[in-house]
Amino acid sequence: AQSVTQLDSQVPVFEEAPVELRCNYSSSVSVYLFWYVQYPNQGLQLLLKYLSGSTLVKGINGFEAEFNKSQTSFHLRKPSVHISDTAEYFCAVRNNYGQNFVFGPGTRLSVLP
Amino acid sequence: DGGITQSPKYLFRKEGQNVTLSCEQNLNHDAMYWYRQDPGQGLRLIYYSQIVNDFQKGDIAEGYSVSREKKESFPLTVTSAQKNPTAFYLCASSYGEINTEAFFGQGTRLTVV
């Protein structure tokens, strides 16, 4: 069975500082990986996805993530955050056999002025 | 514009009443999903459907029911058997292929009093 771990439930960071949100997954087969963002009382919006090819994936709003197969990780990074990046971030995985998406518990990013 | 529409955004019901949440998509997606979101618990899968007239239970199906009579529609009924129905409900859809992302609606916040 697949599972997704997001070790940091909350990450406070000052505006214009860099941030990394961690995601680790467990799966015995090849996976497809996703990061979503959720603003209060809204649905989830796709930030970026890894399907194949280059392990460094660039997404919207200046975010990027790196797929590391040996460490089964897909950490999300942004070199300089803005107040507007304050939101909840979810990592998700889907594999070649699973029909469903498995989501991590989420990380709440708080950007402080 | 293509997308997923959930209605209503806010819903209040008395304890013991059944309530149906609407989810419509015009993305021509084959698969549709219902998730429940509680604070600090991420997204938990209630039901999913890969094709019309077929659906499968997710991790927390007890107290819920669904139908998939049309490709565009996947309504969720929260029955009186659901012990703690107050939550944020998210509907999603995706193409049938494994290497595709899920698209989400804006959610319905259900409060049972």
Kindly summarize this structure in a few lines.
The complex is a heterodimer of chains A (113) and B (113). With 113 residues, chain A is mostly beta strands.
Biggest interface, CB < 8 A: A-B, 26 and 27 residues
Strand content of chain A: over 45%
Unreliable stretches of chain B? none
User: What overall form of chain B do the CA principal axes indicate?
Assistant: globular
Share of helical residues of chain A: under 10%
Q: Helices and strands of chain B, in N-to-C order?
A: EEEEEEEEEEE
Rg calc of chain A:
13 Å
Strand content of chain B: over 45%
Q: How far is the first residue's CA from the last residue's CA of chain A?
A: 41 Å
The assembly state of the depicted protein chains is: heterodimer
Q: What this model shows, in words?
A:
The complex is a heterodimer of chains A (113) and B (113). Chain A has 113 residues and is mostly beta strands. Chain A has strands at residues 3-5, 10-14, 19-21, 24-26, 31-38, 44-50, 56-58, 64-68, 73-78, 87-95, 102-103, 107-112. In chain A, the strands form three sheets. In chain A, strands 2, 5, 6, 10, 11 and 12 form a six-stranded mixed β-sheet that branches. In chain A, strands 3-9-8-7 form a four-stranded antiparallel β-sheet, with no helix packed on it. In chain A, strands 1-4 form a two-stranded antiparallel sheet. Chain A is globular and about 45 Å long. Chain B is 0% helix and 50% strand. The radius of gyration of chain B is 13 Å and the shape is globular. Chain B is built from no helices and eleven strands. With 113 residues, chain B is mainly beta.
